[in-house]
Write a structure and sequence with these properties.
four-stranded antiparallel β-sheet, alpha+beta
């Protein structure tokens, strides 16, 4: 989640080379420093120093594996929107982190307050998450579920 509103946040200054490094690592987080340097046309030492700086300043927050949910046994995915009691997102965040099927949460403005990406083994698992777990949270006033027919992650 983003920094709380009461903190002033200044984004680190990034040049075009930094942006190219971040983009390349976004495509392949396992890329070696040598391959990264070659792709961006800088020295290995420069690439290493820049990646270290981007990590230290929080531009790069980690390296992860991209997983196919179907091959992981998670055949049903949905976006679930939540309408919440005002100012309840702090306690809600902790409760949602305890639900393994909730893969992502974003606080949003508009007709609802939060949107979740939920992945479950099947429709029964999704029903259980929405009706038994999410709707049981006192801060959740209402939910709406949009079933995902197909993930198009890379557009």
């Amino acid at each position: 989640m983003a920094a709380p509103a009461d903190h002033h946040f200044v984004a680190p200054a990034l040049d075009e080379v930094d942006r190219q490094l971040v983009e390349a690592l976004g495509r392949d987080g396992r890329m070696s420093i040598r391959a990264l340097a070659d792709q961006v046309h800088i020295s290995r030492a420069n690439a290493y120093a820049r990646v270290e700086r981007l990590t230290q300043t929080g531009v790069i927050t980690g390296f992860t594996a991209t997983v196919d949910p179907l091959k992981l046994g998670l055949a049903t995915s949905a976006y679930v929107t939540l309408s919440l009691r005002q100012s309840s997102w702090r306690t809600l965040r902790t409760q949602l982190q305890a639900i393994p099927e909730v893969k992502h949460m974003a606080l949003v403005g508009g007709d609802f307050d939060a949107i979740l990406l939920v992945r479950a083994a099947d429709n029964e698992g999704l029903r259980r998450v929405v009706l038994e777990k999410l709707q049981a949270i006192p801060e959740v006033l209402a939910t709406r579920t949009a079933l995902i027919f197909e993930d198009l992650s890379s557009l």
